[in-house]
Amino acid sequence: MAFQAKKLINHPQDVVTEFIEGLVETYPGLQYLDGFPEVKVVLRSDVSSKTNDKVAVISGGGSGHEPAHAGFVGEGMLTAAICGDVFASPPVDAILAGIRAVTGPMGCLLIVKNYTGDRLNFGLASEQAKSEGYKVEMVIVGDDCALPPPRGIAGRRGLAGTILVHKVAGAAAASGLSLADVAAEAKHASEMVGTMGVALSVCTLPGQVASDRLGPGKMELGLGIHGEPGAAVTDVQPVDSVVSHVLNQILSPETNYLPIKRGSRVVLMINGMGATPVMELMIIAGKAVPKVQLEHGLAIDRVYTGSFMTSLDMAGFSVSVMKVDQAILQRLDAETKAPQWPVGVNGNHPPAKIPVPVPPSRSVMTDETLSRPQQLNQQGRILEAAIEAAASAIIDLKDNLNDWDSKSGDGDCGSTMCKGATAILEDLKKHYPLNDAAETVNEIGSSIRRVMGGTSGIIYDIFCKAAYSHLKANSESVIKPLSWADALESAIAAISKYGGASAGYRTMLDALIPAVSVLKERLTAGDDPVDCFVLSSEAASSGAEATKNMQAQAGRSSYVPGEILALVPDPGAMAAAAWYRAAALAVKDMK
User: Fold this and answer.
1) What is the per-residue pLDDT across 116-157, written as a single tens digit (0 to 9) for each?
2) Is 113 one of the annotated binding-site residues?
3) How far apart are the first and last CA of the chain?
4) Example GO biological process term (predicted)?
5) Is 349 annotated as belonging to a binding site?
6) Each residue of 39-68: b (16+ CB within 10 Å) or e?
7) CA–CA separation, 513 vs 385, rounded Å?
8) 226 annotated active-site
9) d(C-alpha 239, C-alpha 222), whole Å
10) 186 CB-side CA count, 13 A
């Protein structure tokens, strides 16, 4: 069903001029000519025809490819960019206005993508400027590798590789070279680059009806940058396969578009088409690099990843490969103030990955220290029983926890807690140094951190780490009951500090706070420690049940209406009460 695309615009006819206004407000190094709507020219604010003693480098074309071309105006790159309407070549008068505004005695170079309208309009403007006494040269860029040659008089389309040509030419001009030399470097760079694009969706022009030309589950190979059909439509493939196809096409010895052979040095540009997330672009880059190196035998000097030449809101990407030598690389690395040229790319890569640092506490411990003792002392046996009972209780409660959480959260509390409990049971038999209570608590946290995602995992990891820190500071070989209570209190305080919750917020703390309160009160009164533990577990259960009557003030449930929350207790509190109660009863059975 056809529908008008949703756009954050005022009127479709004003999108280009309003884009330019926003651009120059954002970047103080840019300004525009006061000739709207016919003349839409962005230029460097520090250059005029009267002051420019370098070759001016000018490019442009239809709008809709942002940040190209205006985003690449700046010292060391473009001197001016001529903006047409969306996907329409700029008029001759606008191009002439740009030439007149920034061209000094050194002349100007026009860099033009190979589309008929751009060639004609920039060509006519060039001839007119020459008749006015300006020195003008023009370089046409056709880097498309999607279609096999020959392409008749139309030739190969100009795509994202044009941006690399802009950079080479801009750096050459900034170095003070003559117009002939700048044009020669730009032409050489244009012959060294090849590009191919892939689309998952068709772009939508402002004010137009969204197209469903591709349909679900389809992708287009070898498209241009104006939404025109590509070389082929196929089923969506894994990115590995797509990247391989694109690289094989660009580097094909049959088409011989690029003078590249094994051992050549290249740079890559991974370009988003407008609606491709950075995550996906980085995945593409990560797959392209080893394929270029290992399958094609090329040495990669630089990788530029981002959105450089887009097609409005198209989901897709293009890959550009440019053969480089030290001279081209020097131009690419040269400093520029163009706001959209990527920074932090220059220079040789250090190793892509390095070892994960080992925590200081681990580095001084032997494997024997952090493994299950061959014989357990009394404290070790009690710990083992309590841990096993607590973890088993969580596993048994999994479905109930998920059910409660489905009414107050995202429905995975039981599954998440069960992962942690299962890991604890597995590690209990192999790794926990049960005769050392503090280290055992620390290892429980490590088990949780390894497998439990989301907020629950980090909260319980904090819980264990805080308890460990308190117990570790205790010099007792056998932890006394009041020290256990103090450790529990420290763990609760840490959760409250970092999570922001406290009593009455409808969280796990509503089970643990009553528990530690009763535990410390009864221990201080001199009651039997095991009885104190059991009594405190009853307080934990009561506290968890009481969360039915609380309005959530933390976590996802804080967004759920109170009448829905009143139907169920907080699953986090119920889980905490369950493992605490199970541990207490297990200790009682050991008495």
Assistant:
1) 999 999 999 999 999 999 999 999 999 999 887 766 667 889
2) yes
3) 72
4) glycerol catabolic process
5) no
6) bbbbbbeebeeeebebbbbbbbbbbbbbbb
7) 24
8) yes
9) 15
10) 36
